[in-house]
Write a structure and sequence with these properties.
The complex is a heterodimer of chains A (115) and B (115).
Chain A lengths: L2 E4 L3 E5 L4 E3 L1 E4 L4 E8 L5 E7 L5 E3 L5 E5 L4 E6 L8 E9 L8 E2 L3 E6 L1
Chain B lengths: L3 E4 L2 E4 L5 E7 L5 E8 L3 E10 L2 E4 L7 E2 L9 E3 L8 E10 L5 E5 L3 E5 L1
Parallel strand pairs in B: 2-11
Antiparallel strand pairs in B: 1-3, 3-8, 4-5, 4-9, 5-6, 7-8, 9-10, 9-11
Classes of the chains: A mainly beta (115), B mainly beta (115).
Chain lengths: 115, 115
Amino acid sequence: AQSVTQLDSQVPVFEEAPVELRCNYSSSVSVYLFWYVQYPNQGLQLLLKYLSGSTLVKGINGFEAEFNKSQTSFHLRKPSVHISDTAEYFCAVSRWGAAGNKLTFGGGTRVLVKP
Amino acid sequence: EAQVTQNPRYLITVTGKKLTVTCSQNMNHEYMSWYRQDPGLGLRQIYYSMNVEVTDKGDVPEGYKVSRKEKRNFPLILESPSPNQTSLYFCASSLRLAGSSYEQYFGPGTRLTVT
């Protein structure tokens, strides 16, 4: 079975500052990796995904993430945040060939962007 | 517009009163699933369906039932709700990507309170 740990439950950050959200996973087999964002009172929206190939993945809204297989990490970064980036962010993994395509989520990281 | 819809969006009920949360997708996806979201736990899969008449348990299936009689619909049934089922529920449907990966599209969520 796989598991996902998001190391920070809350991250306060000032507008236009950079932010990094940490995600570590454990799995005995290869996985696909995802970051989702949940804006207040909304559903989940896919930010970016790693399936294969380049370990640096670019997503929507200026976010990017880097897959590090040796450290089993998939940290999310943005060089300059906006007030509108205030949201909860979820890291998730899906095992290759998993029956039912289950996504295993981390506990989430709340980002609060301050002016 | 491609979307996953859920109804109702908000529901307050009493212990033991049967309820159904509907989920419908218009993308002709084969795969659908239900998750519940609880603070600090992220999202956990309740049930999933690979196709019509094919369903299976996820990580937290106790107290829930599902059915998949049509490809577009995947209702979640709580036969006898209890307060520990108070949660935010998300329906998702999946598009198959390269290899064996899927990209999941989430509905807007249903906030259920059981008193």
